[in-house]
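Below is a filled-in request sheet from our internal design queue. Each sheet records the structural input a requester submitted and the sequence that came back. We keep these sheets so that new team members can see what a complete request looks like end to end.

REQUESTER: design group, bay 2
PRIORITY: normal
MODE: inverse folding
CHAIN LENGTH: 298
BACKBONE (tokenized):
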């Protein structure tokens, strides 16, 4: 069974407990304005163009049969994405690292083989496999196939998800899932719709259903100034989460602008937000501590 990924990161320490291998899938049904992995949004392969590395040698133009690459007199290049078919021929021809193909189809058994290479590190650190994104549940059957095989090997499986799918899709994968890394954006539906393009109604309903299941949960909240950084929002989140029986902790993630350069390389505009101060993060953390919820500022 095949799925589409953007990359695999071995020896990850930020996507669940211990040392982990994180598989980033391609495709997401949210469009968060602060997205730090914009290359995972689209469901098809696409080219990242690092203009600063391009010397306008013309090699990409020679191999492209879609006329996507255009060189002009002052030795600069324009990349017309509307014509690009994502074949990656131009990437292979580029000798200077100016082009990168994001999106690779991989068989579930191939993923399992890669993940299994680091079994000793998982066992020594309490780590395992995390499938992130994008939204892994858009490729649920592929993810389930991987999790089924890694669980048979004794590997801890973590699913990083925004939960914006039908509950039946979630419930089907829970028997082979050890930990859900649940991303919450805003408790206010209008705010959520404005900044992510989707309602939070289904997400919160799914989260409540998950709270009654026998699976560990870590809730991760990106903190974006002017969006969800208010005490009111965080107190609502804390009140919502306080009775989750398998909630391990909440992780508050201050906004960073790493995704803006990636968006530029993908030919997209992106919005830059303000990063919250350490003092702001500590004040928000208290909203959860008051409800006896273990909370980390990442």
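RETURNED SEQUENCE:
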């Amino acid at each position: 069974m095949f799925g589409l990924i953007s990359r695999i990161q071995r020896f990850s320490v930020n996507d669940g407990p211990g040392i982990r291998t994180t598989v980033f899938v391609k495709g997401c049904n949210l469009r968060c304005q602060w997205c730090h992995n914009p290359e995972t949004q689209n469901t098809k392969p696409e080219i990242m163009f690092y203009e600063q590395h391009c010397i306008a040698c013309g090699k990409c133009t020679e191999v492209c049969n879609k006329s996507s690459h255009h060189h002009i007199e002052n030795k600069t290049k324009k990349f017309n994405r509307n014509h690009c078919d994502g074949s990656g021929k131009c990437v292979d021809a580029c000798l200077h690292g100016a082009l990168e193909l994001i999106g690779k189809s991989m068989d579930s058994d191939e993923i399992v083989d890669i993940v299994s290479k680091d079994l000793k590190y998982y066992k020594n650190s309490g780590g395992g496999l995390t499938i992130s994104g994008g939204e892994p549940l858009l490729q649920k059957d592929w993810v389930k196939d991987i999790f089924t095989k890694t669980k048979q090997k004794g590997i801890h499986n973590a699913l990083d998800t925004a939960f914006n799918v039908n509950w039946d899709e979630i419930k089907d994968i829970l028997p082979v899932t050890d930990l859900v890394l649940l991303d919450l954006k805003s408790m206010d539906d209008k705010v959520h719709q404005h900044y992510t393009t989707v309602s939070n109604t289904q997400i919160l309903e799914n989260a409540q259903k998950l709270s009654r299941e026998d699976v560990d949960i870590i809730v991760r909240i990106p903190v974006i100034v002017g969006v969800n950084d208010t005490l009111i929002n965080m107190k609502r989140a804390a009140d919502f989460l306080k009775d989750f029986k398998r909630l391990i902790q909440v992780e508050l993630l201050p906004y960073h602008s790493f995704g803006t350069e990636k968006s530029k390389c993908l030919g997209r505009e992106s919005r830059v937000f303000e990063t919250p101060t350490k003092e702001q993060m500590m004040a928000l953390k208290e909203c959860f501590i008051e409800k006896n919820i273990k909370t980390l500022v990442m």
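SHEET NOTES:
- The chain has a mean pLDDT of 94.
- The chain has eleven helices and 13 strands.
FILED BY: M.R.
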